[in-house]
């Protein structure tokens, strides 16, 4: 008569330190990827002043020309209008 063999498999308890290291590594990898993407697009996120315009000839800048896409062309013109007394009170 054969004696049946019984194999007992014990589950190893997972260490919480291993889980913490995995989570910390994932967070650091995401932060590093975000830093690389920011460095690549840093210059494109900033608008550059291409020129200033004096519309009425009084020597003060009345409008600013901006390059917002980074291709060297004027994309946006901001006109600075003086505020009236009624607008200041609102």
Blueprint (SSEs and pairs):
Layout: H1 16-45, E1 48-53, E2 63-67, E3 76-79, H2 85-89
Antiparallel strand pairs: 1-2, 2-3
Please give a structural write-up.
This protein is an alpha+beta fold and 90 residues long. Helix content is 39%, strand content 17%. It is built from two helices and three strands; from the N terminus they run αβββα. Strands 1-2-3 form a three-stranded antiparallel β-sheet, with no helix packed on it. A hairpin with an 8-residue loop joins strand 2 (63-67) and strand 3 (76-79). The model is unreliable at 85-90 (pLDDT under 50).
Question: Which strand order does the major sheet show?
Answer: 1-2-3
List SSEs in N-to-C order: HEEEH
Uncertain parts: 85-90
Give the N-to-C terminal Cα separation: 102 Å
Strand content: 15-25%
Helix run count: 2
Helix coverage percent of residues? 25-40%
Q: What characterizes the major β-sheet?
A: 3 strands, antiparallel
The shape, in one word, is: rod-shaped
Computed over alpha carbons, the radius of gyration is 32 Å
| Overall pLDDT level | 79
Number of strands: 3
State the secondary-structure class. Answer: alpha+beta
Key attributes of the depicted protein:
alpha+beta; 3-stranded antiparallel beta sheet; single chain; 2 helices; 90 residues; disordered C terminus; rod-shaped
Q: Can you summarize this structure?
A:
With 90 residues, this protein is an alpha+beta fold. It has 2 helices and 3 strands; from the N terminus they run αβββα. The chain is rod-shaped, with a radius of gyration of 32 Å.
